[in-house]
Design goal:
Blueprint (H helix, E strand, L loop, with lengths): L1 H12 L3 E9 L3 E8 L5 E7 L6 H13 L9 E7 L2 E7 L4 E2 H6 L9 H20 L2 E2 L8 E4 L4 E4 L6 E2 L7 H20 L22 H4 L5 H4 L9 H11 L11 H10 L9
Antiparallel strand pairs: 1-2, 2-3, 3-5, 4-5, 6-8, 7-10, 8-9
Helix pairs in contact: 4-5, 4-9
Amino acid sequence: MVWYLLIYVLSTLAGRFELRETIGQGTFAQVWRAQDLETGHPVALKLFHSAPDVAANVLNEVAAGLRMPPHPNVVRALAFFESGESPCLVLDYVPGSNLAEWLARQPAPGPDSAPDRLVVLRDLLRGLAHAHASGVAHRDLSFGNVLVAAAPLRACLTDFGGAWFADPPAGLADAFRQDVYAFAVLAYLTLSGRHPLTDDWQSQHSSEWSGATGAHASLPRRRLVDLAPWLASHPHLPALSSVLGSCVAADPGQRPSSAVALAAAWDAAGFSASTSK
């Protein structure tokens, strides 16, 4: 049944897209690299096996994508096609692998591997700041939702299926601070391999980290430079360690108000994290 639906969808898209290769396969969808014959640009086609369980997220991702202008560090949903029971999402195409896969191929955390990891985090922050400036909160920052292209090295934020958006964006203050927290956790893990609160982080549920109550509030915060002492020799990383520490404060009100504010703090710490290249 799945293959019948897939063939049906592909036949309806054949006049617009030329399929090149399969680049991903998951429980709910198959992803293809394709050429948009109308624009001449490469795109990614995400072909879902069935509609009922994914339609809401697909439409949400398109709505979020339409709110954001093009940006080199954001993968936007460009269009949505529905054929029979199997929807298709058209996305910006970014060659590469997710952050977890990329890190698995890198040298262990240390002074030699820090520069490339900082480039990836800088790009991710640029993408997140662009989303926040566009009134979009991602709400699902994770290793799997960051794509890393190797040549040249570039990272992109993807998968806005669970995003919230508002205009004006002031109504997203809490969601923005959750994104800031999630970004800082990824930064800690990317640079040091350790969580800012506990080495048992993988056993925790994500909901425990979103507010000022429960186990999340009772655990002491750990400084990045203490978890990865080699970073102290970098001329700017001690300042960056303080910035990231503020992002994981138990009280969300003590965190930077958005990724735009966080990017400004990165700039002040000696890095360039402005929202455009």
